[in-house]
């Protein structure tokens, strides 16, 4: 690795703001403290949004599970290479829908019964090789620290020092397409760059001692599902299992990474990330983005829309999502543009913005 001194990109984020202004007067700074608080936002949310209906939630589970098995049975019966690619796209999307339902179990929005949430969450997430409690806990950490450069759990920006090491070691593939869209299983095993631990290990620093039993339970369920898949490979053959399960699994992974990444990246204007005294739960949350996924919105239970009801309160802090066609093909452009430009943030400063490393943005992989 080169021993050349590192150049610090910014001290306090002011130069990024200057770049965005580009010599013109700007009447809104997304990094400025908002004139409202969490109580104002909560008051704007309609009361029916707070109601947890387990029967309605279970009806979504029944619908999605029926579609999953129906797609598998119909495609296996037809067994045509004209049908298999359509099946992979559709089934991978349905695996993603199952994940979203398990996600809601983890948040407690599926029902007000923790035992029901845990049972349903384990069944849904284990079926797609996700350790329910391990991920639930790390996802809680993400929401408690969203928008914080160091403390956020997933899809947080890397520092200049980290990206410098990637480029110096010729490991820039790790931040280029398609790797970020395949990252989720690797994240489950070893977390994000710069962090240690695993979602499967009860002694990981992700968890406190009181959570060990939960983590062990989920790891056992994950292992049981993995063993079932191995058994099915022996029973019906690895190629049929590849076509029926494993290719859709990777489509699901791409959906998960695609949606999650674009919930925190890819806006036309640069959005701030915080650390130190400038970070707060509210300011971090205001950097997230709603997205319109067209027909997919209903299939994946509107996971792309979080804040529309609070638009009157949020004002310019709400970024209206671009209207999608039947399929959200327009978001592919947002993804590619962001991955070409949003590479790292400064190692110092309490309000920072993504910057571009020319060695990465010029890669043919992203062209």
TrEMBL record:
It comes from the Eukaryota. This is Uncharacterized protein. It comes from Vaccinium darrowii. The lineage of its organism: Eukaryota, Viridiplantae, Streptophyta, Embryophyta, Tracheophyta.
């Amino acid at each position: 690795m080169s021993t050349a001194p590192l150049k610090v990109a910014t001290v306090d984020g002011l130069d990024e703001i200057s770049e965005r202004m580009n010599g013109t007067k700007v009447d809104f700074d997304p990094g400025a403290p908002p004139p409202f608080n969490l109580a104002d936002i909560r008051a704007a949310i309609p009361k029916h949004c707070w109601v947890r209906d387990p029967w309605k939630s279970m009806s979504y589970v029944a619908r999605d599970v029926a579609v999953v098995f129906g797609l598998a049975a119909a495609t296996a019966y037809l067994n045509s290479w004209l049908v298999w690619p359509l099946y992979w796209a559709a089934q991978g999307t349905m695996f993603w829908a199952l994940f979203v339902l398990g996600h809601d179990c983890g948040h407690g929005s599926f029902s007000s019964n923790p035992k029901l949430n845990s049972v349903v969450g384990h069944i849904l997430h284990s079926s797609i090789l996700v350790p329910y409690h391990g991920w639930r806990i790390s996802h809680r950490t993400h929401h408690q620290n969203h928008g914080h450069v160091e403390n956020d759990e997933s899809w947080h920006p890397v520092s200049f020092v980290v990206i410098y090491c990637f480029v110096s070691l010729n490991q820039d593939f790790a931040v280029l397409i398609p790797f970020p869209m395949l990252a989720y299983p690797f994240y489950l095993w070893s977390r994000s760059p710069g962090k240690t631990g695993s979602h499967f290990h009860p002694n990981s620093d992700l968890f406190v001692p009181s959570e060990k039993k939960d983590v062990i339970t989920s790891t056992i369920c994950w292992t049981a599902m993995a063993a079932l898949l191995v058994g099915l490979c022996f029973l019906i053959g690895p190629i049929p299992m590849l076509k029926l399960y494993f290719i859709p699994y990777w489509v699901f992974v791409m959906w998960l990474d695609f949606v999650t990444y674009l919930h925190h990246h890819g806006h036309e204007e640069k959005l701030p990330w915080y650390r130190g005294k400038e970070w707060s739960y509210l300011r971090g949350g205001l950097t997230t983005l709603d997205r319109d996924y067209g027909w997919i919105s209903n299939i994946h239970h509107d996971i792309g829309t979080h804040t529309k009801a609070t638009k009157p309160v949020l004002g310019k802090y709400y970024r209206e999502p671009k209207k999608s066609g039947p399929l959200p093909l327009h978001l592919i452009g947002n993804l590619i543009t962001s991955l070409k430009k949003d590479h790292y943030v400064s190692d110092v400063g309490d309000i920072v913005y993504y910057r571009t490393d020319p060695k990465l943005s010029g890669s043919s992989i992203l062209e």
